[in-house]
Structure formats: C-alpha cells, structure tokens
Amino acid sequence: MTHPFLQALKERPLLVDGATGTLLYSRGASTEASFEHLNLTRQDLVQQAHIDYINAGADVIETNSFSGNRLRLANFGLEEQVWKLNVWAAKVARNAREVAGQPVFVAGSVGPTGKLLSPLGDVTEEEIANAYQEQMEALLAGGVDLFMIETMSSLEETAIAVRMARKVSQLPVVAQLSFSVEGHTFLGVTPEDAVRLLLELGDDLPDVFGINCGAGPGPVFDSLIRLSAAVRAKGYGEDKITFSCLPNAGQPSLSGGRYTFMSRPNYCASYVEPMVRSGARLIGGCCGTTPEHIKAMRAALDRYIQSSKQASSATLTDLPAVEVPPAVSIIAKSGKSDSSHSNNLKDGKEGKAKGELPDLAMRLKEAKEKDNGDFYISVELDPPKGAVSKKLLQAAQLIYEAGADAINVGDSPMARVRMSSLATCQLISQKVGIDTIIHFTTRDRNLMGIQADLLGCQALGIKNVIALTGDPPALGNYVHATAVYDVDSVGLIKIISQLNQGQDIAGNSIGSPTTLSIACALNPTHENRQQELERLRKKIDAGAHFIMTQPIYQVTDLTDFLDQFGPLPIPILVGIMPLHSFKHAEYLHNEVPGISIPQEIRDAMEKAGDEGSQVGLELAEKLLDEVKSLCQGTYLVPSFGRYEEMATLVRRLKAKSKSKSAAPA
Asked: How many CA atoms lie within 13 A of 328 on its CB side?
C-alpha cells in the first residue's frame, strides 16, 4: 500500500511550512537556549507556530526537533531528555493539526549532529547512528508521518541518517543537503558530488532528495537545477526519486540586535513555479520564512496547479485556497445510510411502538439470536480540536467507502476539549451519510443538559448512544474545570430508557418516545474484576441494549470475564486497537489505563521490527476471528490517525462477513 504522503506527492506538489525557529525567535524564544526544550516548557508557543503555518496553507509541517539529537542537546545539558523532547515535538505538531482541522502531514525534523566524523572530528559512525536512532524512534512514537532529514553538509552523515530512518520504520524519508550561495556545502560537497550519496545508499534511497537552507531562492534554485540534472543523468527516474527545494528568505542581517532576512514573501513565491517545473515536488521555506511567506507561496502554487495539466489529478489531499477555504462537499452513496439518518425524519413522528427495540439494538439482537453472519463494524474517530472539520470528514468518507457500518465519536476523550460530539455526529451524518454512535458523558452536563442533548440527538437523527460517565477534568488540559456528574453511566442509561418510554425523569410526557439504541461500556481487564461485574449487571438492568468493550489483545481477556459473569443477555461489540510498533505496544501497556497487552503480543511486535504496522493488523484480524463466536461486531480504534489501515481492516472483515452469510446452510 502506497503511503498517503507519497500518493499525495504523485498527485500534486506539496508545500512545506517555513522556519519554525525563526517564528519562535520572533516571539521571544532565546537563541541561548534550546528551542526543543520549548516542546515541554512552552507547548502553546510551539503549537501556535504550527497552526499559523497550517492556516497559511502548508501541506506539511515539521516538528520542532531539528536539534533534537543527543549530541546537540548536550550543549544545553538536555542529552538525557531526547525521548521526551522528541515525542512531545511530534505530539505538539499533531495537536496543532487537530486544532487547525486540516489534513496536513507531520514531518519529523532531523538535523545534523553538529559533530564531524573522523578524521576531521572525533565521533564515530556508531555514535552518530545511535544518536539518530534514538531521536527517530522517539519521533516515531510521537506519531510523525515521515522523516525530514535536513540541512546536511556531509554525505557520510546523511547516509547514516537515511539508513537509520529506513531501519526504524517504513515511513517516507526526505533527505536534504544545504548548499551555500557559492553552490557547495560547508564541507565542500557540490550538487554533482551529491549523486555519490544515492549510489552509496543503493536500495535505501530516500523517497525525496533535495535542498534546504544555505541560501535564498535564487542560489538554491540554481543548485536544484544542477542536482536534478546530475541525478537524472545517472538514470534515476521519477519512479525512483523526486526532489525538494526549501530555500531561506535570502541571507540574514543583524539589525537592532536581531537577525532579519531580506527576501520578501512575493519574491520567494515567484520561485514556486520555476522550482516545480524543474522537478521539485516538495517546496517550502527555511530560515527567515514566515507564515506570510508560506501564504504567498500557497497562492503561487495554487495558481500554477490551476493553470497546469496537473489540475485534473488533484484529490482530497489538496488543501483549500488560503483566503476562502471551500466547503467540504462529500456525497453519500445511496442505500448505505441507516434509517436513523436525519434525512429520513418526518416531523418527529418516527417513534417505535412501546416495547419495540430501536433499529441498531434490534439488528444486533437478531445477529446474536440468529447467528446470521451480520458482523457490525464501527470505527472510532475523535472530533477535531478546532472548528474546522475537513480532515475529520475525509477520514469518515474513507471509512464509509471501506464498508464500515458506523463511526463512533468521542466526547472530549481524556478530558481534553474538542468539538462537541453531537455536532461532529451531525456533520458526519450530513456530509458523509454513514450512521454514528455518539459517546455521551455525564461529566459536563447536569440533569437538564443531559435530557436536552438527548432530545437533540433524537431530533437530529443521531439514534445510537454509548452512555459513559466520562474522564474527570483533572486528567485533561482544564484541570480546574468543574465536573458535574449529577448521575453516572448507570443513571444515564436509566434516563435514556425513560425517554424511550416517552417520559423525562420527572415523569413528564415528551410526546413521541425517543428511539435511541443504548450501548454501555465494559472493561473486561479491569483490575477490580468484581466491581466491573457488578457495574455491568447494573447497566443491563438499567436498560442497556448492547455492550462495547475496551480494546482487548487476547481472547482470554473476554472469556475470563464472561466465565465469571455467565451468559450475556445482550449483544456485545469487541473493542480492537491495532498496534503499529513495539514502542506503541509498550506505551499502551505501561502508560494507558484500562489497556493490558500480553507479553507474547509485545514480543511479537518487537520481533516484527519495521513490519510492525502490518503485523499489528494481522494480529487484530486474527483476534477478531477468534472472538467472532462470542460477539456480534467490533469497534476499531485507530491510533495516530492511521485511518488507511483501519479502512484496510474494515474491507477484510466485511469480505469475510459476506462470505459467511453467503455460505449455504
């Protein structure tokens, strides 16, 4: 499967952000301190820099980790914080992407170590390789989409970095050298010499090879022409490697005690078309470039795409024009939307007869009783952290087209503020047409608010609700916020059940009863098994129609619980969160409450190495095969926005489900 970044790069040129360091410096960061340390101490400052570049029109943002290797961090006494600084560099960038709501790629920025290999220096290849491995593994754990190795002067050090990137993952790799105004690197390497790097790397070629920093647009463009000609002359075609070009905003000058760069936004933008025509598919800015520069380059790139033959290949990966982002227009396929979709409502008079189950509850009940091969699949999506929903809707469309039955939407999970789950469900229903399951917590609503929002769900056609108590605010980013908790999840189930009977909790008539299918949560690996057993019985007695479990990683997670509970009277959907690396497995097992991953699974992920993502999907599929006789479906939880992998798994599961239902009795 082609990585989304590489697929996007084939479809159109992509715009990288500008200088993160320049922006942080202009906003008060000291050049005497580590910019990477701001990932811990001033996350708001770093995040806003990323957001400003996204809003300017960048397709790719780079993490604030350029000097995040052990050898450079030692200059600030931070060499023992490599892991934390780089993981947070990636997390802050990903958070910015969520807040901005745009489907940008997050590139893990990896700069030179600042040390020279012998005989010029005193560090060994092993020391440099270890430094890069440590940094890249941390960026990978933080969730980057690709590696951006940049501002390199030494071909030998660049080769070490590229090989290490290939070793730690299968993510795309961009490798960039830095040529001066005179057309050579700090160590005297010319664009023509750079071909030696590709010959040395062999099968470990970077996906993108190019230039950043060193000089302004003019000299860097000249070096690009020389580099591309030399590479093509050696027989490397576009199917093997493509180019990047990220110049500085001219040369710096010291004015009033601060450095400024000479090249204005429009001047930098004037080089966009020449760079693309010369073979660059990845363009952007380096030192001195600001959001204003990127905004001008965005406009220039959009004009070029509009007027070129490549316009016909533009896809959903294209970002909107800067000034007026177009509305997302996604057309639902006919016949897929559930009867709960708001378009099917008729004056609010669609209520069921008393005692008749709502649609989803009935479907799952029939699947449980008849074993008809109907395997229900929902995929979990978190609402955006800002008010822009484009990235969310693209993910929903992908999941819908893969064949999922529903999307379940979190309610500010981990007590971190996001768009309301109700609004998110409505957007997905209107724009995509797939059914939704809303996560509904009692944390933020009093009894009046709970009932008001549930009636709103009914009116908007959001008919499937998982009743949750909700994570306390102390776990999130508003630790002083007041939690309500007038009732817990059991009380919420009772409220929904009463609304389904046509009355509010005070016994007042609401007219037509609601028709809400009620899910309850279950953590089968809870450390207090007896408490969880009692809670589940209370939830079922309160009126829950089906169960949704926390992610499990072995059959016994579920069977051990059921052996104590006894036969389940209601259907169950098993939670599955596919692993994508050994580091991911270790993080979930050791740091995420409610998730326990068996040693043999963690061992398998460690053995998988850079095949971790594929092995994780295979383990998830195998587990679902093993538990199918115990459940009526699953809900899949993607990590780090890996929606393409979820779509692949959905297609496989649906194909098996169809095969079973078509088999002769």
From this structure: 24
Grouping H, G, I as helix, E, B as strand and the rest as coil, residue 341 is coil
Give yes or no for a contact between 106 and 144, defined as CB atoms under 8 angstroms apart. yes
Q: Would you mind telling me the total number of residues written for the chain in this entry? A: 665
d(CA 376, CA 517): 14
In whole angstroms, give the CA distance from residue 520 to residue 490: 9
Residue 261 CB contacts under 8 Å (≥ 6 apart), including other chains: 22, 248, 249, 250, 251, 252, 253, 287, 288, 289
What per-residue confidence (pLDDT) applies to 338? 43
Question: Half-sphere exposure of 289 toward its Cβ, with a 13 Å CA cutoff?
Answer: 34
pTM: 0.74
Say whether the peptide bond before residue 119 is cis (omega within 30 degrees of 0): yes
Q: Helix, strand, or coil here: 558?
A: helix
- Distance from C-alpha of 60 to C-alpha of 261, rounded to nearest angstrom: 22
Strands 242-246 and 435-441: unpaired
* Domains of the chain in sequence order: 12-313 (3.20.20.330), 342-571 (3.20.20.220)
Give how far the C-alpha of residue 85 lies from the chain's centroid of Cα atoms, to the nearest Å: 19
pLDDT of residue 564: 96
Pairing status of strand 242-246 against strand 258-261: unpaired
The beta strands (E) that lie in 217-266 are given as 242-246, 252-255, 258-261
Show the low-confidence residues of the chain (pLDDT under 70). Answer: 253-259, 309-355, 474-480, 591, 593, 659-665
Question: How far is 82 from 138, CA to CA, in rounded Å?
Answer: 8
Q: Compute CA distances 10 → 79, 279, 420, whole Å.
A: 38, 12, 36
3-state secondary structure of 108: strand
Sequence-separated (6 or more) residues with CB below 8 Å from residue 445: 453, 484, 486
- What count of other Cβ atoms lies within 10 Å of the Cβ of residue 181? 14
Nearest alpha carbon to residue 445 among 412, 478, 477:
412
The structure tokens listed for 554 are 């072995």
Determine the pLDDT at residue 334.
38
Token output for 613 = 């993502």
pLDDT, tens digit (0-9, with 9 covering 90-100), for 234-272 = 999 988 999 999 999 987 765 555 667 878 899 899 999
pLDDT tens profile 548-604: 999 999 999 999 999 999 999 999 999 999 998 888 888 777 767 677 889 999 999
Q: How many helices (H) and strands (E) does the chain have?
A: 24, 18
pLDDT of residue 254: 55
